[in-house]
């Protein structure tokens, strides 16, 4: 019997929602990423092999810029059950 895929509660539907989930900035030569984390009740990944702590839900264009171009971030943080 397979595991049911659960939708992460903050799955973004549009660019405005992405901006509310993940923030990125470049400060003192470091890329700083701030992302909501699910630390009390991480949800299973699609495969069920890991528990998702935080996700950008794919590659997301941020407001951070390098050489005048937006930085794209794809981030997954997880734990093994």
Strand content: 35-45%
Largest sheet: 3 strands, antiparallel
Care to count the β-strands? 7
Rg computed from alpha carbons, rounded to a whole number of angstroms: 14 Å
Q: How many distinct helices?
A: 1
The number of distinct structural domains comes to 1
- What is the arithmetic mean of pLDDT? 81
Strand order of the largest sheet: 3-4-7
- CA(first)-CA(last) distance: 18 Å
H/E series, N to C? Answer: HEEEEEEE
Task: Please estimate the helix content.
Answer: under 10%
Specify the overall morphology.
Answer: elongated
Structural class: mainly beta
Poorly predicted runs: 1-10
Written overview of the protein:
The protein is mainly beta and 81 residues long. It has one domain. It has one helix and seven strands, in the order αβββββββ. A three-stranded antiparallel β-sheet has the order 3-4-7, with no helix packed on it. A two-stranded antiparallel ribbon has the order 1-2. Strand 1 and strand 2 form a beta hairpin. The protein is elongated.
Kindly summarize this structure in a few lines.
The chain has one helix and seven strands, in the order H-E-E-E-E-E-E-E. The strands form three sheets. It has a three-stranded antiparallel sheet with strand order 3-4-7, with no helix packed on it. It has a two-stranded antiparallel ribbon with strand order 1-2.
């Amino acid at each position: 019997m397979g595991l049911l895929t659960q939708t992460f509660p903050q799955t973004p539907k549009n660019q405005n929602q992405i901006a509310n989930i993940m923030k990125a900035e470049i400060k003192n030569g470091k890329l700083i990423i701030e992302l909501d984390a699910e630390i009390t009740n991480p949800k299973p990944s699609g495969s069920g092999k890991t528990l998702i702590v935080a996700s950008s839900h794919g590659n997301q264009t941020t407001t951070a810029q390098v050489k005048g171009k937006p930085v794209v971030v794809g981030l997954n943080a997880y734990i093994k059950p």
